[in-house]
Amino acid sequence: MIELVDRILPGEDEEISQALHKSLTKRGVEIATSTKTSKVTRTATGVVVEAETPQGPKRFEADCLLVGIGVVGNVEGVFAPGLNVELFKNHIKVDKQYQTNVPGIYAAGDVIGPPWLAHVAHHEALCCIERICGHSDRYVDYGTIPGCTYTDPGVASVGLTERAAKEAGHRVRVGRFPFLASGRALAADETEGFVKLVFDAEHGELLGAHLIGSQATELIAELVMAKKLEATEEEIIHAMHPHPTFSEAVMEAAAQGMGESVHL
């Protein structure tokens, strides 16, 4: 795995990034960070990648190459010639109502720019159509977008990372709970990973949630709802979670942050 920046999953919390790096390395994946690909050559048996690493030039040989550097919205040929819909950085420029500079033409989803996520496009389209039809004037809450990385173990997050919360001026309190201490995870033999919750230390509001583990992309929905409703750590602790489940780790992480965990 070749990554241009200094760590994998650069948009995720640093602890999560480090945990996934360690997990993949343990499974035999070679990870080269701060590395720039300079040349790719197809060979009779596969592919050779030449790259510039912090230690100097290096060659990587493999059976095949997967390029995963993001997506862009496909806007070519969408509009009739002469219809001058404004673009910005190769995406359709829209206002808060998803209307373009041409009255009556709206756009939503990947074509209007990042984040390029199916669930974001879905909600943008709903808000846009409801507004066109006069049913609602609501907006997408871009502060509660769940991010999911479908690796093994999986990664999911919502809201601010610990560093971003501190940079935003919050005095933070962090709660963590490892799946190794979860009875359900032990029974399923899926003990890798943990739940990390970032709270505002003054008011207790959930600022961000970061998970790594086999059920991370499923568990994040609860935390999206919690953040949407401005839940506090105390409210998460006292929301009864069924036992034994993976979801208990969310409750336990909040409790650990307040020094109230009874299972860790």
Task: Kindly summarize this structure in a few lines.
The protein has helices at 14-26, 118-132, 162-167, 183-188, 216-228, 233-238, 248-257, and strands at residues 36-42, 47-53, 56-62, 87-88, 91-92, 147-149, 154-159, 172-178, 194-200, 206-213. The protein has 264 residues and is an alpha+beta fold.
Could you explain how this protein is built, in words?
With 264 residues, the chain is of the alpha+beta class. The protein has three domains: 14-62, FAD/NAD(P)-binding domain; 87-140, no CATH class; 144-257, 2-Layer Sandwich (Enolase-like, domain 1), CATH 3.30.390. The chain has seven helices and ten strands. It has a five-stranded antiparallel beta sheet, with helices on both faces. It has a three-stranded antiparallel beta sheet with strand order 1-2-3, with no helix packed on it. It has a two-stranded antiparallel ribbon with strand order 4-5. The protein starts with 13 loop residues before the first helix and ends in a 7-residue tail after the last helix. The mean pLDDT is 95.
Fold topology:
Blueprint: H1 14-26, E1 36-42, E2 47-53, E3 56-62, E4 87-88, E5 91-92, H2 118-132, E6 147-149, E7 154-159, H3 162-167, E8 172-178, H4 183-188, E9 194-200, E10 206-213, H5 216-228, H6 233-238, H7 248-257
Antiparallel strand pairs: 1-2, 2-3, 4-5, 6-7, 7-10, 8-9, 9-10
Defining key terms:
264 residues, alpha+beta, FAD/NAD(P)-binding domain, Enolase-like, domain 1, 3 domains, 5-stranded antiparallel sheet, 3-stranded antiparallel sheet, 10 strands, 21% strand
